[in-house]
Amino acid sequence: MGAQRLLGALLFLGLSLAQGTLTLYTSEVLADVNALVEAFRREKPGVEVKVFRSGTGEVVAKVRAELQAGNPQADLLWFANEDFLKELASKGLLRRIPPTVPGYPVQYAPGGGLYHEVRLLYNVIGLNRQRIARPPALWQDLLRPEYRGLLAMPDPNFSGAALATVGTLGGRFGMEFFARLKESGLKVEQSNPVLQQKLARGEYGVAITTDFGLRQEIAKGAPLEMVYPRDGAILVPTPVAVPAWSKSPELASRFLRFLLSPEAQAIFAERGYYPVMPGAPRPKGAPERVVALQGHFADAATLERFNALFGLRR
């Protein structure tokens, strides 16, 4: 009877972990998230994955509002704002998930697994070849007179990647850099996808935007190319975390580990991202090595200065 009870318990445990509902709050591109969710559900057909997707700023605002109301809903958090995750961790609101996937580089799981990078994305310079004859090589090349009136970037109030652009380049060159870009006619679009589509149509000639999104537009036939600046593409932290309030922590942990599986890492590469797992394929046409600037998100004071400069309101 003891062995039968143990077997029954193990079967019940396996069944309970393979069923249930998982709620993901994310700023990632919905089509990319859906591809991963579908692959996960092929392995766990009894699992329902609910996704709330918006820009990082709106996702963070939603989590804050739910916490204030005492009713947080997300089982998984995945967006481009490492600083907010650090804030949650400091309050004991993140679960530590040990980085036990074989071969996973431990530097991608700070704090012993409070959150995990599952793929890498960079902010780079995107070009429409039909509008730009001479590509820039460095970030400060964007100040060339020939790019006047052709420049754009996403809104850092909405896009976490853009928040990293403001924090990183503002810290390196000073906010005067953005003031000079404003003088050159830099426009601010809401999001990277909107910006990339306008760049592909030729409404802009040069954009500060994400590398994976440019690859996706190029794969559709857009006349675009990307430049990884010689002084460093901005590596944007976009980690995944399981909050302490999760109603399905085991299922959330399984989904996190699935994102590091060969299948998921291959999906990332197919959709233009650099995988984090050693031996996983690179995106098509991507350089083997990238000179990287570690992204730093703009603080509230820096964001306020940027908003004042460009007439934006939060």
From TrEMBL:
Residue ranges crossing the lipid bilayer per the database entry: none
Keywords: Signal
Coiled coil region boundaries: none
InterPro entries: Ferric-bd (IPR026045)
GO molecular function, one term: thiamine binding
Annotated CDD domains: PBP2_Fbp_like_2
Biological processes, Gene Ontology terms: thiamine transport
Source organism, top-level taxon: Bacteria
GO cellular component: outer membrane-bounded periplasmic space
Protein name: Iron(III) transport system substrate-binding protein
